[in-house]
Amino acid sequence: MGASKATFLLAVIAAAVLNAAVLCSGGITSSFVRKVEKTVDMPLYSDIFKVPPGYNAPQQVHITQGDHEGKAVIVSWVTVDEPGSNTVLYWAENSNQKNKAKGSITKYKFYNYTSGYIHHCTIRRLEYNTKYYYEVGIGHTTRKFWFTTPPEVGPDAPYTFGLIGDLGQSYDSNKTLTHYEQNPAKGQTVLFVGDLSYADNYPNHDNVRWDTWGRFVERSVAYQPWIWTAGNHELDFAPELGETKPFKPYSHRYHVPFKASNSTAPFWYSIKRASAYIIVLSSYSAYGKYTPQYEWLKEELPKVNRSETPWLIVLVHSPWYNSYNYHFMEGETMRVIYEPWFVQYKVDVVFAGHVHAYERSERVSNIAYNVVNGICTPVKNPLAPVYITIGDGGNLEGLATNMTEPQPKYSAFREASFGHATFSIKNRTHAYYSWHRNQDGYAVEADSMWFFNRYWHPVDDSTTAQS
Ligand SMILES: [Fe+2]
Questions:
Q1: Fold designation for 156-194+267-466
Q2: Of the candidates 76, 45, 59, which has an alpha carbon nearest to the alpha carbon of residue 211?
Q3: Residue 94 exposed, middle or buried by CB count within 10 Å (0-12, 13-18, 19+)
Q4: Per-residue model confidence (pLDDT) at position 3
Q5: Is 18 strand, coil or helix?
Q6: Distance from Cα 149 to the centre of ligand 1, integer Å
Q7: Which of 26-40, 107-121, 353-367 comes out lowest in average pLDDT?
Q8: Paired strand residues for 74
Q9: What are phi and psi of 8, to 5 degrees?
Q10: Is the peptide bond before 406 cis (omega within 30 degrees of 0)?
Q11: Using alpha carbons only, what angle is made at residue 94 by residues 91 and 100, rounded to the nearest 5 degrees?
């Protein structure tokens, strides 16, 4: 073989190897390596969990959206000494007029635990874009908080959402929440993708850990709404303890405005907020054909008016596109049933949790398969959503570090670190998304992407296209 022939052959082999590497590998597996530490829950005596002082002081105060449009807020809190008043006093920042709303009180037993008095009160007919103060605990120890209502629902209303999932109550959870609070992007509402307290990891699902979690996150959720998604740690299904009603602690403690979107259960519902339409689904409620969730979603998707709310966002706990060797393919049955609708209705982004790590997908779909045609591989699809796994809140179960290799093509970026993200809508065409790992300073972005709206500006926005 002549020298030139050998060189040519080498070049061909090199090209083939390079080509194979490009074709087989997906996006980026981050080279960031986290120091190996055990993820430990904060002890019960931790300052983070301290009970507010005073007789019957309201604790675990939290708010969420209370209607479909963002003009109502559900205020919830717990009292322990006696039921106390279920009234909320509230007033606009620039007004002396104090208003009253009356709520309801509930409590529950779980095995050998009895909850405090859980209050839920919906404040309605609020003005958009207004700061309100509110006071709870009327008659005994009162506590005052505030929130700002969103701008009027409309196509170009800018708005910034925070994204947190699988939070738990470890030292890492506390870091995640602090990073979210300190993020200069200033999230205005948290989209929480499920798995709140992890109380079920304790003997007898020790519901005291539901209370500590409520006190831990109060510093954020008393001042801005968190939009709730139910995860598997909300199930608390424990027949061995005689507890057979799924979601019992969660559904007593966290109310959502499901009736406002014609849902028949609090585990799937929708809200409009500013320029976003948010659909919350339940991975742990029946979702097959003819089930209430299926029928609701089938009716719901055609109702979304992208001229009013251009950004269509879905929250669900179990991810559909995941390349970690944890919960791999657990979301597959739901994906098979609902994914064609997500493509048809041009969902912009789907946020999930469950896997304790971070991952962002390409715009892909896998909807061509029909049992006999063998077409069952995810393919790039400009009409498909981006799928983001953000189950990296920092709970005691620790990080998911083991990944499917090689990185599948549907995976654009993945990293096993704890953190949070923000999704900042600028107008009807553009939104800026960024993910922040806890090891960095508050402003550092470890992954980011400009989203181009799928209805108004459906051009290629993959990070490979942008770079
Ligand atoms: Fe989970």
A1: Purple Acid Phosphatase; chain A, domain 2 (3.60.21)
A2: 59
A3: exposed
A4: 47
A5: helix
A6: 30
A7: 26-40
A8: 64, 122
A9: -60, -45
A10: yes
A11: 10
Q: Residue 58 — very low, low, confident or very high, per pLDDT cuts 50/70/90?
A: very high
Please give the Cα distance from 322 to 313 (Å, whole number): 18
- Compute φ and ψ for 459, nearest 5 degrees: -95, 170
Contact 209, 167 (CB under 8 A): no
CB atoms under 10 Å from CB of 149, counted, come to 21
Q: For position 31, what pLDDT does the model report?
A: 86
pLDDT tens track for 237-285: 999 999 999 999 999 999 999 999 999 999 999 999 999 999 999 999 9
Q: What is the DSSP string of 251-282?
A: HHH----GGGGT-SSTTSEEEEETTEEEEE--
Confirm whether 457 is a catalytic residue: no
> In this predicted structure, what is the pLDDT of residue 465?
62
Catalytic entry in 68, 327, 356, 436: 327
Give the rounded distance of the alpha carbon of 95 from its chain centre.
Answer: 34
* Complete DSSP assignment for 156-174: T--EEEEEE-S-TTBHHHH
CA atoms within 13 A on the CB side of 10: 7
Q: How many CA atoms lie within 13 A of 371 on its CB side?
A: 0
State the distance from the centre of ligand 1 to the C-alpha of 397, rounded, in angstroms: 10
Above 50 in pLDDT, residue 341?
yes
Residues written for the chain: 467
CA–centroid distance, residue 457 to ligand 1 (Å): 33
Does the pTM of the predicted model rise above 0.90?
Answer: yes
- Predicted local distance difference test score (pLDDT) of residue 16: 42
The mean pLDDT value of the chain amounts to 94
Going from the C-alpha of 83 to that of each of 80, 104, 140, 164, 271, the distances in angstroms are 7, 10, 11, 32, 31
Question: Distance, CA 411 to ligand 1 centroid (Å)?
Answer: 20
Ligand 1 centre to CA of 141 (Å) is: 37
- Over residues 88-92, mean pLDDT: 98
**CA 236 to CA 234: how far, in whole Å?**
6
- Residue 300: its H or E element: helix 292-300
Measured in angstroms, how far is the CA atom of residue 317 from the centroid of ligand 1? 7
Of the candidates 86, 84, 128, 78, the one whose C-alpha atom is nearest the C-alpha of residue 107 is 78
